[in-house]
Amino acid sequence: MKQVELAPGIFHLQGGSNIGLVVWGGKGLLIDAGLDKDTARRALRAVEKAGAILEAVVITHAHADHFGGAYFLQRRLGMPIYAPALEAAMMEHPIIEPLYLFGGAAPIGELRHKFTLARPCRIDHILEPGPLEIGPFQVEVTPLPGHALNQVGVAVGEVLFCADAAFPAETLQKHKVTFCVDLDATLETLERLPDLSYAHFAPGHGPAYAAGEEIAQICAANQARLEEVRERVYAALEEPQETPALVQRVADHFGLRLTTATAYFLTRTTILAALSSLERAGKVTTTMEDNQLLWRRQEAQEVNRG
Ligand SMILES: [Zn+2]
Q1: What is the spatial distance between Cα 180 and Cα 183, in angstroms, rounded to a whole number?
Q2: How many angstroms is it from 151 CA to the middle of ligand 1?
Q3: Is the pTM for the entire model greater than 0.85?
Q4: How far apart are the CA of 148 and the centre of ligand 1, in A?
Q5: Residues whose CB is less than 8 angstroms from the CB of residue 222 and which lie 6 or more positions away in sequence, other chains included
Q6: In the beta sheet, which residues pair with residue 154?
Q7: How far is ligand 1, taken at its centre, from the CA of residue 104, in Å?
Q8: pLDDT for 24-42, tens place per residue?
Q9: 165 CA distance to ligand 1 centroid (A)?
């Protein structure tokens, strides 16, 4: 775990998934808790090395790689955990993550590993947008929805811990189709993020970005990728298609090889988010044919006719 001090007492702990650490007056605040016990233990060591006692943990969104370690900290120290509504429900009932990936049915074994099914933790406080005092810490909670329905960013001083609102170039290069549940909301978040008045943007994966050109560039790259995904979905509908065919067409377009069921279900979620965005815009609709649910383009005059 690499420790980068972005501002006095404000650290970005960079690893598989990053963690924020703020130290003030002998107290420590963590933003996210990592994938598992081992990651959380390393974060706790960083708190102790800074000569602080852990005051609280704030979780940005309910993905296993961000809150999987929270149960360990709670069991060990009993400090309070803060999370946004809805995300909080999923952290208390982590089965919801593999359950939604598997279309609401009891998830298969492969979706029950620690990357998609974390240990539960108790959420003590629901985060609302706006300023919040946690012990000696003054934080600002900013909604950053889209990647997760109710994801938030957490700002301390001039640093915004912006969770998975934007992925690093490396992820765009490797995974191609980034995960989102609401494509429109993700694009709006990416549009807004660079204009927020912070000096540093510390995401959940990859390095931190400086205000101005750096954050604007990575947000633009993320936006462009999701717009390309949506365009490819629409382009594939010259004939009506079932969802699996669209997953394949988009993956082929990006030269992406999906080698696990988990990768398939994650990619499918983003494709469904693209379809949902197109449907909202009146561009596609569903139709039933021979017991198949097909997606097809909706012509403009059809929409006008209602
Ligand atoms: Zn995430």
Answers
A1: 6
A2: 9
A3: yes
A4: 7
A5: 166, 167, 172, 178, 186, 190
A6: 141, 161
A7: 19
A8: 999 999 999 999 999 999 9
A9: 8
The percent of residues in the chain predicted with pLDDT above 70, rounded, is: 98
Measured CA to CA, the distance from residue 203 to residue 194 in angstroms comes to 13
CA of 164 to the centre of ligand 1 (A): 5
* Angstrom distance (rounded) from CA 23 to CA 93: 30
Mean pLDDT to the nearest integer, 191-195: 98
Tell me, in angstroms, the distance from the centre of ligand 1 to residue 180's CA: 9
Centre of ligand 1 from the C-alpha of residue 153, in Å: 12
